[in-house]
Amino acid sequence: MSRNAMQWAQRPKFPPTHYVDSRVYTSEEIFREEQEKIFNKVWIIACHESEIPNAYDYRTFRHPGGQNLIIIRGDDNQVRAFYNICPHRGNVILYDPSGNAKRMTCIFHAWSFDCRGNCIDISRGKEGYQDRLSLQDVGLREVRCEVGYGGFVWVNVDDNACTLKEYIGDALSMLEPHMQEPLEVFHYHKAIVNTNYKLWHDTNSEFYHDFMHYFNRITGMLQPGYFDRKYVGYPNGHASVGSMEIKYDKYEGSKDRKVGWPGLAPGGWILIDIFPGMTYNLRTSVLRMDTAIPLGPNKVIIEFRGLGLKRDTPEMRAERIFDHNMIWGPFGRNLHEDLLGVHGQGIAMRDERTDSRWVLHGREENMTIHDEGGMRHYYAEWSRRMGRPAYDPFGDRGIAGKAAAA
Ligand code: FES
Ligand SMILES: [Fe+2]
């Protein structure tokens, strides 16, 4: 065996907290277990309140646990969530991704439901069920739903889970002073990437990869203060990366930024990762929200929302859209650089011939911006919830270890 073949077969010479087995990113078995033990137990952002501003507005949501949900604003202004499943014979009720429905009628046998999930009509009900079934017996299955932390609509399919407040804890305390006013989504797009959802969250958990971003090297890394940013971990796997001032004028072609954000220093930046796949990213004039919806171990939908203030004038809004799209959104280069990074990881990790490897999370720089402690913090929570250590999830010391033992 060549020297480097031997290197690849050995576990990294780091403590086990400082690397993970790459099969946590590719295994079908692990993915199913993540749906059950993670996604079906935690609070997940489904959308933002501004996407359903009026009574009866709805959005459908593919929950990362696999369930199809309806998020609908009631006639009492309350936002509720339900399974998008008819209690009669289990048909899908709403097919459109968004709309306005005073009455939700199942196309199959025409049972109807109102915005509070009550069944309001059973076609030929008396004739078929006589007194054996009443409208009260067959409402939509409600899912826990809360609006908060910037007006996002959160859902939890576990009836026994802790409250949203308990789940978040202090993780968003750095951002909360900047999210006191009503916000509004002005841009939405999504990317479907052949990679694992955790790899996307990893890019939001470390900034060592700023070497990949031309723009960040110029506006951030070369500027004083960049290496002072501290990574702070919170319970439940959440984390924040300290604020810094970005020198946008260092980027050739940038223009003066006219709109800021309430309470945020000009050029300020606050980034907060919420376990298991959501990121608040407030930069100067725009809040970007990333949410990951895995479709399998090797495929993920990443949703991106750009938010401004609800009270924006048209001029302010135009400026925010410009700022968002020029750099951080679909017409900037950063996003595509990130997507290329995780796409490449996805290709390499799916290749079974290289599956015997470990992924290093071993940088230690006093928990500053290039430290990989963010990922270590995440995988500690992941391992706890999964009941499997991320460095050895199958108890076989990696595929190489398994082969050696055989
Ligand atoms: S399945 Fe919906 S009305 Fe029959
Ligand atoms: Fe990035």
Structure described in brief:
With 406 residues, this protein is α+β, with helices and mostly antiparallel strands.
* Strand runs, count: 19
| H-E string | HEHEEEEEEEEHEEHEHHEEEEEEHHEHH
Q: How many domains in all? A: 2
Give me the CATH superfamily of the largest domain: Naphthalene 1,2-dioxygenase Alpha Subunit, Chain A, domain 1
Q: Give me the CATH fold name of the largest domain.
A: Naphthalene 1,2-dioxygenase Alpha Subunit, Chain A, domain 1
Distance between the termini: 17 Å
Q: What overall geometry do the principal axes of the alpha carbons give? A: globular
Strand order of the largest sheet: 2-11-10-5-4-3-6
CATH-scheme architecture of the largest domain: Alpha-Beta Complex
SS strand fraction: 15-25%
* Largest sheet geometry: 7 strands, antiparallel
Catalogue the unreliable spans: none
Structural class: alpha+beta
Helix content: 10-25%
What is the typical, i.e. mean, pLDDT? 92
Q: According to CATH, what is the class of the largest domain?
A: Alpha Beta
Using the CA coordinates, give the radius of gyration.
23 Å
Helix count, DSSP H or I runs of 4 or more residues: 10
Bound compounds, each kind once, are: FE2/S2 (inorganic) cluster, fe (ii) ion
Q: Would you write up a description of this structure?
A:
The protein has helices spanning 3-9, 28-39, 125-129, 164-168, 197-203, 214-221, 314-328, 334-350, 373-386, 398-405, and strands at residues 19-21, 44-48, 57-62, 68-73, 79-83, 98-100, 104-105, 112-113, 119-121, 142-148, 152-156, 183-193, 231-233, 239-241, 269-274, 278-283, 286-296, 299-309, 358-360. It is α+β, with helices and mostly antiparallel strands. The longest helix is centred in the C-terminal third of the chain and has 17 residues, at 334-350. The chain has two domains: 5-26 and 180-386, Naphthalene 1,2-dioxygenase Alpha Subunit, Chain A, domain 1 (Alpha-Beta Complex), CATH 3.90.380.10; 44-165, Rieske [2Fe-2S] iron-sulphur domain (Rieske Iron-sulfur Protein, 3-layer Sandwich). Strands 2-11-10-5-4-3-6 form a seven-stranded antiparallel sheet, with no helix packed on it. The mean pLDDT is 92. Fe (ii) ion is lined by residues 203, 209, 213, 334, 338. Residues 86, 88-89, 91, 106, 108-109, 111 line the site of FE2/S2 (inorganic) cluster (FES).
